[in-house]
Amino acid sequence: MTPTNTLTIDAQPGPFSIDSAKTALVVIDMQRDFIEPGGFGESLGNDVSLLADIVPTVAALLAFARKHHWFVVHTRESHAPDLSDCPPAKRLRGAPNARIGDAGPMGRILIRGEPGNAIIEPLAPLAGELVIDKPGKGAFHATRLGEELAMRGVTHLVFAGVTTEVCVQTSMREANDRGYDSLLIEDATASYFPAFKQATLEMVRSQGGIVGWTAPFASLIKTGETTQAWK
Ligand code: TIU
Predict the structure, then answer these.
(1) Is the pTM of this model over 0.85?
(2) Most informative mutation of 29, 46, 54, 141 for ligand 1 (most atoms within 8 A of CB)
(3) pLDDT tens-digit map of 92-105
């Protein structure tokens, strides 16, 4: 078989075709603050164990992306220590004793450089991968992500991470309005609210893919087994 860098993935609402040279994996906010007990997610009253379930699948997805030479992007929801990039409206949403910037068990909540803001160890970025610190829920808002993708000729995005209906969906919608085709890997994303995750998957792919496509990781693996990676 002739080596090819094109994969066609069995997705909903239809096949999703990508050229590895123009594809980026965007892993949203797999940071300790959201996934481990004692962080921002738990401070909002959430059961964080629901998010830990996807870690092995996200790790396998990262390995797949690296093997196929996709550009890899990791994001962290984070703010400057002086909170100059945190609108008061955002800070005031949390519980009074556990707001952004307050001291928590893993350092100051959602503050850049604090232990809780680090990406969890099994999904740590490798050299050459882009790490985007984003002050908003969306990965494009007030970041250089758009320029970084444009510089590399990226046209297709594969999304994973947390939470499905908040930062992942917001980022996919931002990407959609910027002209990217996006695929959300169903079992590589999670929410504190399973019903919200399910609703998000359905709304993303509804109306002919109004926001993008969704597929289980197995669909990607299946494609990868029958298509040689570009060298
Ligand atoms: N990363 C992300 O989704 N940030 C959130 O605050 N999510 C919630 O679901 N709270």
Answers:
(1) yes
(2) 29
(3) 987 777 899 999 88
